[in-house]
Write a sequence for this structure.
């Protein structure tokens, strides 16, 4: 029998990857909030390269590397998706294709957006309920936006508005979360467990 005639059986042990979700704010986590000063984002928002050249999304590649490494460490058994909850989503100039391109490889992870008519914390709760999301973290520099949502607060990784995801403590918390095996809702994990 030649090798050309050998048929392989389908992989009976193939496992669907575990899905985790990262709720992502832009101003603070993806670039310093000072990037906004003196810039007309509405004019820049039509071009991914203009956004990048103006200093927006400077930490997108670092975040993508961290998430990609966690997925590689899980040998394909993990998929980390991004849900955008940034205030940008409510702006008339917001364009999903431009933002995806501006975020580079990280943009390919976007699977949805929170509802812009809801406050941030409630929007995250609403999205988790609608999409059946249990294993998630929220990256945001505005912790006050989540004061009325204790369940979401437990998943919040507070980011410095000037250091974003490049802050060592944030990167460490994200990495711990990405590598952790989710323990079901009987005891919701706190950020210190990540």
């Amino acid at each position: 029998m030649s090798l050309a005639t050998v048929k392989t059986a389908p992989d009976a042990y193939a496992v669907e990857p575990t899905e985790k979700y990262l709720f992502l704010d832009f101003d603070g986590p993806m670039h310093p909030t000072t990037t906004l000063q003196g810039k007309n984002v509405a004019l820049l928002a039509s071009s991914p390269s203009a956004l990048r050249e103006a200093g927006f999304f400077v930490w997108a590649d670092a975040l993508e590397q961290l998430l990609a490494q966690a997925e590689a460490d899980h040998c394909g058994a993990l998929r980390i998706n991004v849900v955008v909850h940034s205030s940008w989503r409510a702006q008339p100039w917001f364009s999903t294709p431009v933002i995806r391109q501006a975020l580079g490889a990280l943009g390919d992870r976007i699977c949805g957006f929170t509802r812009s008519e809801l406050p941030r914390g409630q929007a995250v709760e609403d999205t988790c309920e609608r999409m059946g999301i249990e294993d998630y973290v929220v990256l945001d520099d505005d912790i006050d936006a989540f004061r009325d949502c204790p369940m979401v607060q437990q998943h919040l990784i507070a980011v410095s508005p000037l250091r974003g995801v490049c802050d060592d403590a944030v990167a460490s918390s994200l990495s711990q979360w990405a590598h952790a095996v989710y323990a079901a809702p009987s005891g919701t994990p706190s950020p210190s467990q990540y």
Summary: The beta strands are 18-24, 78-84, 110-113, 136-140, 156-158. The mean pLDDT is 87.
